[in-house]
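pasting for the record
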Amino acid sequence: MKFFFRKNNYFKFFILILSLAFILGSAYFAPKIYRNIKEKMKGDFVFGTPNTEQNLADGIVVVITVDDGYCHQALVTLTSLLMSAKKTTFYKINVFVPREFGDESKKKLLTLEKTYSENCTIEFISMEDCFTNSYISAHFTNVVYYRLRAPSVLNKRSRCIYMDTDIIVEEDLSELFEIDLQGRLLGGVLDSASGYRNEKEKMERESYQKAFNIKTLDHYINSGVLLWDLDACRAAKVEDRFRDFLKKYKNPSQHDQTTINASLSTEEILLLDFRFNTQAYMFSEAPYGQDKDRFSLIFDEKQWKTAWERPCIIHFAGEKPWKDPSTYWIEKWWNVARITPFAEDIIKQFRTTK
């Protein structure tokens, strides 16, 4: 009998250990399994059917994409755009927004239409269910993909300028809008992925290139400022290409930027001058910023100097001036923010030192 009870105790102890192992294993692996399932689901995105532009006012067609969380940044970007406009320049501003975009956010942006009535009109275009369940990361939302639908949303237009909302416009955009794209589908400025510091970084770049079947990184553009030939894009069915890419690749690590660079050939993209998308994080007071080995591989000295001294568009693609006090040209962003009608709200929301 003693032997029986001893065995029975061992058996109970074994069951107890097994149960604890199962509980601990579940606690450890369940979140990973959940994330994996969620990650796979993100690839099953909805390409969707957006609304189309209704107000076909003449002028330079500008597109931004924004949700409620980026309303104040969009205010700053559009204020700088309108402040920099020549008296004779008129912008037709199309704001691509989610279906649930708030009335309060719309009212804030429409104050600019009243203030700068001689230079702009603003239209909000709902993207409905477009890019629902798309892959996102960090601070991004599915709004980042909206620019990919510009050819169908602006189906009566021949060209447009797309801009991110972490941007300050320093000059009138007539020169950019009128650039001859020479038969290309769109124009953009080179991104830092084209350069590298050392062999390790070069291998990382090549791994990214291979993962998404990007032809070359020597022609890899930053998608924060784009000049679109919308007629050519429709003829080439680029939106079908974007949809097919996003169906095939579940997690494009740079979202729309990966999609554009992987879906278009180098012959379809015109490289624009650095001053049309001067990426602030590249700069410091030193020549070629803090990273000469890397950035000198991307831009020649003349182009770099011109962008530094006279940027047309400053893009805060890395550090954000409303978050990081060390951001290069932070004072330019805050100078504009302080003259918007909602300066107090912006200061209250973002408390960087400058």
